[in-house]
Amino acid sequence: MTQDELKKAVGWAALDYITPGTIVGVGTGSTAAHFIDALGSIKHQIEGAVSSSDASTAKLKSLGIPVFDLNNVDRLAVYVDGADEINPQMQMIKGGGAALTREKIVAAVADKFICIADASKQVPVLGKFPLPVEVIPMARSYVARELVKLGGLPEYRQSVVTDNGNVILDVHNLSIVDPYALERAINALPGVVTVGLFAARAADVALIGGPDGVRTISK
Ligand SMILES: O=C[C@H](O)[C@H](O)[C@H](O)COP(=O)(O)O
Known about the structure:
By secondary structure, the chain is α/β, with parallel strands linked by helices. It has 6 helices and 13 strands.
C-alpha cells in the first residue's frame, strides 16, 4: 500500500468514533483530508463540524458539511486529526501544514483526540521532524535566539503565513525527552503563539495505518 492509501484507511476508520447527531472537530492536512471525505459520506447523520483551518473549512463546505464557529459550540465529543510524529505516550508534533494553533484550540475543546496517522509517523522520541512554532512576526528573531538557547536550530519557514497572520519557525536538532517541559518553556516565550508540541493535550486514541491494516492504540 502507498502512504496515501494508509492515510485513507485511517481517515475512514475514524468514522467509527463519530456519534450521530454531533458536531465533529476536524483537523488539517493530507490525512485529515481523507477523514473529511469520509465524513462527507455520513453528512446527513451529523450536525456539522468545527474546523481547524481555512483549507479544511473549504473542503468541508465543498462537501456540503455545515461548519460552525467554535465560539458557538461548547462541547465536541471528538477531534480527529493527523500528526507529523507520535510517540508511545501518544504525544505529538503537529504543524507541518502550519495549522497548529487552531488545531490545538479545537483539540482543547474536544473530549477525545483521535489521531490518524500512517505508521511512518510513529517514533520512540519526538524531534526528528522539525518542531513548528507559530510566532508573531515582529518577535521572529527574538524567539529564534531563545530557541537556540533551548538547544534548537530554528529555521524561518519562508513564504508561509498562517491563517492567523503569523509566521512559522521550524526547530531542528531537538531530541524531545521531556515534551511537557519543552511545551511549557516554548509557550512561555513572549511572541510565541503556539508550539506544535501536543504533550499536555496528547491523543486519546491513535489509529495507525500499516501494511497489516489499521491498528488501534488507546491510552
Ligand atoms: O498543520 C498541519 C497539521 O498538524 C497536520 O495534521 C500534520 O502536519 C500532518 O499532516 P499530514 O496528514 O498531511 O501528514
